[in-house]
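Morning!

This is the sequence you dropped in the shared folder:
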Amino acid sequence: MQLKAQSLKFKTDMQLPSHINHSLRSKAISAGGLPLSMIPSFRLIEDELEQVKRLIDEQLAEAREPVGRLLRNVNICSGKMIRPGLVLLSYRVVLDGPCANGLSTKSAENAEKRPKLSKSSTFVDSAVSDNQHDSHYDAICVAAIVELIHNATLLHDDVIDGGQKRRGLPTVNNLCGNESAVLLGDFLLSKAFKICAKLDPEITNIVAGTAVRVCEGELGQIAQRQNWQLSESEYINIITEKSASLFSSCCLLGGLLAGASESQIRSLAEFGLNAGIAFQITDDLLDIIGDESKTGKTLGSDIDKNKLTLAVIHLLRAVDEEEKSAVINSYLLNPVRDSVTRDNVIQKGGISKGLNHEACLERDARCGKESLAEILERFGSFKYAYGRVQEFVTKALNALTDLQESEAREAVIETAKFIGERAI
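The structure's back. C-alpha cells below.
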C-alpha cells in the first residue's frame, strides 16, 4: 500500500478538508470538548500536535461517501490528545538530552521510503541531520496512529456501553446506529494501519502488539462483569492491559524514535505504564462522580454495565457480608432501571407531573447514582482510590530519574501531575 508524498506533506497554509464540520467543533468546545491548551504541559509541543491533526485530517479527507458523512459526526482531535502528546514529549525528552542518536541504522535504511516533512513544519532547523528529520516525521506519524486507534476504541466503547454523548455531541451510535459506529471505528483503525505501512517494522510491531493488549484487556473486563469477588490486583491487571499499555507504548515509541538508550526506554515505558494506570483510575472515578456537562460524555456506564472499578471494589471489601449484599442488589445490579415500568411510573404520579417514562427513568437512575456516591464517600472508597492514583503518579515520576533535566522533562512531570489531579 503506497502513501503518496503529496497527500502526506504538511503545509503551513493548508485548509481544513471538507469533512471537518467547524460549527460542530465549536459547539463541542463550548459544551465540554477540550482544546489542546487545557493540558498546560502541551504548550511545548503545540506545533507538533497541530501537525498530527493535519496528518489525520488529510487521511480522513480521502474518505468517500457515506463515510465522509459519518466522519462529520466525530470530533477526532477535539479531545485532550494525551496519547499523541506523550509520544511527542517523550521524543523531545530524549532529543533534548545528551544521548539522542536519532534513527537507528535500520530505520535510516528505510528513510528513503518515506515522504519528507517540509522544513517549515518541523521544530528542527536546517543544521539537523536527515535522520532526525525522518525520526521527527515518524514521531508525528506514530502520534497520529495512537490517536486514531484511541478514537476507534471510543466509537466501539460507546456501542458497548450505550453512550449517548461524547465530547459534548451525540455519539455516532446515537445518531446513526451501532452498525455504523462499529464500522466507522474499523475505518479509523484501517487508516492507522495505512500510516503504519511506511514505518520501520520495529515500530509497527510495537503498535500491533499494543493493540492486541488493549483488546485483550477490554475482553477481560467484560468477562469479569458481575464478579463481585474481583480483587484490586485483578482490576489493576485489567486496566493495565486495556489502557495503561497504550500509554506505556506511546512513551516507549517516542523515546525509541529519538534514539534513546535502553535504560531511557525502560524509564519512559515505566513512566507511561504507571501514568496510564493513574489515568484510568481517575477516569473510573469520574464515571461515578463526574459532571456530564464538564466531561462532555455519558457517565455511569460502568455501574450500568456491572463493571467493577476501584472505588466499588474497595467498598465491597470494606462492608460486611450483609451490607455487601444490600449494596449489590440495591445499586450495582441496577434495579431502579430494570424495575421501573410504565405502570409504576403512573402509580408514582410521574405522568401527572408532566414526566414521561424516560424522564422518570433518568431521574431515578440519577438518584441511585447519587446514593451510591454517598455510600462510597462514607466508607472512604473515593479517598482510597484517589490515594492509589497518587501512588501510581509517584511511581511514574520516580521512573524519570534516568532522564536529564530539561524543559521537556518538566513538561512530562507536569503531565503526570495533571493526570493525578483530574478527579479532584
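Headline: Residues 1-37, 99-130, 335-355, 357-364 have pLDDT under 50 and may be disordered.

More detail when I'm at my desk.
O.
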